[in-house]
Amino acid sequence: MELISETKSFDGWHKQFEHNSTSTQCKMRFAIYLPPQHENKNIPVLYWLSGLTCTDENFMQKAGAHRIAAELGVAIVAPDTSPRGYDVADDPDENYDLGLGAGFYVNATQEPWSSHYNMYDYITEELPELIEKHFNVTSTKAIAGHSMGGHGALTIALKNSDQYTSASAFAPICHPVDCPWGKKAFTAYFGDDQELWRAHDTVCLLENLKSHIVPMRVDQGLSDNFLVEQLKLETLEKVNDEKNLGIKIVKHEGYDHSYYFIASFIEEHLRFHANFLID
Amino acid sequence: MELISETKSFDGWHKQFEHNSTSTQCKMRFAIYLPPQHENKNIPVLYWLSGLTCTDENFMQKAGAHRIAAELGVAIVAPDTSPRGYDVADDPDENYDLGLGAGFYVNATQEPWSSHYNMYDYITEELPELIEKHFNVTSTKAIAGHSMGGHGALTIALKNSDQYTSASAFAPICHPVDCPWGKKAFTAYFGDDQELWRAHDTVCLLENLKSHIVPMRVDQGLSDNFLVEQLKLETLEKVNDEKNLGIKIVKHEGYDHSYYFIASFIEEHLRFHANFLID
């Protein structure tokens, strides 16, 4: 594991590392924020999954999360949003919504994606193992994300409800099997059989829920340009109501899809997770 | 004045505008954060001057300042760091420390710079006039900045002590007449006569101080890579001590030159200014 940068922030440290990933078969970069408490004890971890086009940097630079993490004593890990490198497949048309920066946090089954696009294994297994080996952290972890990363956080928490204390999302892609971003990515990564897509869709997973779910919170800005066509919050609200799932859904007048929206409410999300991460 | 973007943030609004500037003879972009209080009353303004390579965006996205501005009821205006446009001169070698993104907040007297590089007039006269005309703000204003913008904030406040309530800087270029960044820029903008440079240098202005100074605060990270060669905090400390000026200088072990440093202490700067901006 190679240290790329380290910067003091709110009395803790923001660090970037690169390592060779067995899941994605390429060099992966991630960022970690270690609040001052990590000097004296093992602390829990919040994994943050970013949206389309992002890297490990967007959340760390723009969300204003370090201040609250430093108060609460929670580490934050922000992985990249896809494998990268010269031999990693990308959208032939170089659009932002497939390939590089658009891993969707799944294990692709179709060529040319399947050799590197295994972000699900990376996020749920390889990365936590690495983090728990190298830093003063416990195995107690929560997961959160934005947009494509909101989809990632919710689906991962639904499929691994024993692994995470809680999950939250800003403006998640709620029902990717039925929106343009999701259809494009899932066709590429899983092929044409739409039945197979449903295992990677928050609303479908909730419709067929077999086990308990962890505490969940979703925030959505009502001036978000992607709300109607891509995010489809109403599909999540419907299953949440029908099955009485207790997911806390908060709608915000006037807010859009940007990191200004995330920054405005990240404190509430971090305190929500701290309720479950910290005894 | 053309609205480029508007985004809700901490219950207020972040907006970007473009306008044709008479000072710089080109289209200028600036950002303004209007906290929720501006809906009901006229509020004071903090002008933020960014460092080399920045635009109006860096501070607004990375400093985490909206939260505190929204609490205090202070507007923040972040101008660009230089004139821009196809006919605006740039460093022939395209380095980051001269020309575009490197206006140093002065009025250049030498060709080819003097036709557009009039950032001093823009910041001290044209921009406040525009802001006070178009927004619910008072003429009460403070000024702050980072690195080149710290130099800008301190020199502007020293030369206009009746115009600003207070000034502050993160990692300012304290003594540009005696550091590589300053020598390069001042040679280009003012020519070879180094006597003329002294009117644009915080330490020189303080050495020859004729009037009162406004309350000032300077924060400096001690792991800042630019500290020794470019920023030279010790020159400011020396004149501050010798002349008993009362500038509050705070040094921070481990912090570097990045926005993580600014984010860690921006709350203290905003509260410092609020003491003087708000009755």
Annotation, overall tally of beta strands of chain A: 9
Rg of chain A computed from alpha carbons, rounded to a whole number of angstroms: 17 Å
The fraction of residues assigned to DSSP E strands of chain A is: 15-25%
Total number of distinct structural domains of chain A: 1
CATH topology assignment of chain A: Rossmann fold
Oligomer state equals homodimer
Order of helices and strands of chain A: EEEEHHEHEHEHHHEHHEH
Instruction: Tell me the number of helical segments of chain A per DSSP (H or I, 4 or more residues long).
Output: 10
CATH class of chain A: Alpha Beta
Structural class of chain A: alpha/beta
* CATH 4th-level superfamily of chain A: Alpha/Beta hydrolase fold, catalytic domain
Question: Averaging pLDDT over every residue of chain A, what do you get?
Answer: 97
Strand order of the largest sheet of chain A: 1-2-3-5-4-6-7-8-9
Largest interface between protein chains, with number of residues from each side:
A-B, 23 and 23 residues
Proper CATH architecture of chain A = 3-Layer(aba) Sandwich
Low-confidence region ranges of chain A = none
